[in-house]
Amino acid sequence: MNLTWDERYAVGVRHLDDDHRDLIALANTLIGTVEQGADVEQARDALENLVELALAHFEAEERVLSECDYPDLREH
């Protein structure tokens, strides 16, 4: 199983879209690691990489939404 980037997912903010592509790539790495039966340490490393980028991305995304006075930021 692989996740695939589609331009319909683009939000029009280059660094956020780059993050989205990277998140998909890291998710695919994690999926591949598990599907290949890699050891727990490799799977943990792949998961940690994904979570680390996700957390940084969510902070960046919320900054952009805040700067734009996005009305539903709290719910986001």
Low-confidence stretches: none
**Average pLDDT level:** 94
Residues in helices, as a percent range: 55-70%
Category from helices, strands and their pairing? mainly alpha
Number of strands: 0
CA-based shape: elongated
Alpha-carbon distance between the termini?
Answer: 28 Å
What's the helix-strand series? HH
Computed Rg: 15 Å
The biggest beta sheet reads:
none
What fraction strand?
under 5%
Total of DSSP H or I helical runs spanning 4+ residues: 2
Characterization of the model:
- Helices cover 66% and strands 0% of the residues.
- It has 76 residues and is mostly helical.
- It has a domain at 37-76.
- Helix 1 runs antiparallel to helix 2.
- The mean pLDDT is 94.
Secondary structure topology:
Elements: H1 14-35, H2 40-67
List keywords for this structure.
76 residues; 2 helices
Give a quick summary of the entry.
This protein has 76 residues and is an all-alpha fold. Helices cover 66% and strands 0% of the residues. It has helices spanning 14-35, 40-67.
